[in-house]
Amino acid sequence: MSKIENSFGELRLAIEDHTYHMATEAMLDTLALAKHIACYSDVAPIVGFPARSSKFWALLGQSMRIDQSCGRPIRCSLVVNKQTGIPGNSYFDMAASLGYVFENTQEGRIAFWRSQLEKFGIRGVPFNTVK
Q: Is residue 123 in a domain?
């Protein structure tokens, strides 16, 4: 492969990464504006990934870092596991690594998640009822 072909290949990958990032950001902004909660399995295909894709999880983590650095609520709080109705463990692990403080129990995690939802104007969401 020539240097030019390699450069174009790298450029193509960079454009794809940027496109996935922008699609993820737009999807999270849309959920926030609509004050809507959605499931990973419904959202991931919209941005071009299966729900269990490590790339999709990395994009959500990147979004959490952006939200934290901008001092805004965590938009990933609006994306949950279909079976449990709350975000997955990675959400809470990332939040803790970013300096958010909450009790590392099921009750503490849910209280933290609900506090983030309240920042979007979403209140009284029982888990296991998200569709």
A: no
